[in-house]
Amino acid sequence: MLQFAVSISNYFRRQYLSRYFSILLSVILGWGVLSTPLALAAPQVTEVKVSLGNSANELKFFPNNLQFVVGQRYKLILDNPSPQKHYFTAKDFADSSWTQKVEAGKVEIKGAIHELELKPGGEAEWVFVPMKPGQYSLRCPIPGHTEAGMTGLITISAQ
Ligand SMILES: [Cu+2]
């Protein structure tokens, strides 16, 4: 009799557990199914490419006029196809934006950034959201480069 009671209670416990697990499983699966489209629909990133100099060693940014809109997310892809190092320096613009991250090589930097140095052949990605409308100057502060025309204009416009 006792044996019977134990097996009955085991039976119900198993039933209970299997129901519990199937609910848990469906919650996990449901979450997976629901969260996938949500992740895909996450705020879009607009990619913008800027080259620091070129292979002919012209001291310019290509392009040198950048337009962004407040509140949108951008990935600024910087490269340096020239034979010498350059800087992407735009301190006021950086102060007027929220930086999500900067990626260069295998390093990812979180937080504020003001200036990026790119060696020949270097690449970096800067993911940010412009916050404050305005016009901001861009330049390469290596001696002679700003003077030679390695400057640019960054415009952040309101939504
Ligand atoms: Cu330069």
SSE topology:
Blueprint: H1 2-40, E1 45-52, E2 61-62, E3 65-69, E4 73-79, E5 86-89, H2 91-95, E6 97-104, E7 107-109, E8 115-118, E9 123-130, E10 134-139, H3 145-148, E11 151-157
Parallel strand pairs: 1-4, 3-11
Antiparallel strand pairs: 1-2, 4-9, 5-8, 6-7, 6-9, 10-11
The structure holds copper (II) ion.
Structural commentary:
This protein is of the alpha+beta class and 159 residues long. The protein has 2 domains: 1-42; 45-157, Immunoglobulin-like (Sandwich), CATH 2.60.40. Helices cover 30% and strands 39% of the residues. The chain is built from 3 helices and 11 strands, in the order αβββββαβββββαβ. The strands form 3 sheets. Strands 2-1-4-9-6-7 form a 6-stranded mixed sheet. The chain has a 3-stranded mixed sheet with strand order 3-11-10. It has a two-stranded antiparallel sheet with strand order 5-8. The longest helix has 39 residues, at 2-40. The radius of gyration is 27 Å and the shape is globular. The chain starts with a helix and ends with a strand. Mean pLDDT is 84; it is low at 21-41. The structure holds copper (II) ion. Copper (II) ion (CU) binds at residues 59, 86, 140, 142, 145, 150. Copper (II) ion binds at residues 59, 86, 140, 142, 145, 150.
Which descriptors would you attach to this protein?
single chain; about 160 residues; alpha+beta; Immunoglobulin-like; 2 domains; six-stranded mixed sheet; three-stranded mixed sheet; about 30% helix; binds copper (II) ion; metal-binding
Examine the secondary-structure arrangement and name the CATH architecture of the largest domain: Sandwich
Helix content percent band: 25-40%
Number of strands: 11
CATH class of the largest domain: Mainly Beta
Structural class by sheet pairing and helices: alpha+beta
Lateral arrangement of strands in the main beta sheet? 2-1-4-9-6-7
Strand content: 35-45%
Termini distance? Answer: 77 Å
Overall mean pLDDT? 84
Biggest pleated sheet: 6 strands, mixed
